[in-house]
Design goal:
Blueprint lengths: L2 H61 L2
């Protein structure tokens, strides 16, 4: 193989490795953003679903209904 061609192939391998590392970092970042977003939306909804019936029971109990 020609030395010039071999050198270009090695440079491309280095660039591909850098691109792969960058893509993996981006993938991890998006994964954590998704996890945090779900936690910030779903967990409060679950909390509200548990607390609202208790509040309604307290309110209706205080009114004597």
């Amino acid at each position: 193989m020609e030395p010039e061609l071999q050198q270009k192939l090695e440079e491309q391998d280095k660039k591909l490795d850098a691109i792969f590392k960058s893509a993996e970092k981006t993938r991890r970042y998006f994964l954590w953003v998704l996890i945090i977003s779900v936690a910030m939306i779903i967990l409060p909804l679950i909390g509200v679903a548990i607390i609202i019936p208790r509040i309604i029971d307290l309110y209706t109990g205080a009114l004597g209904l």
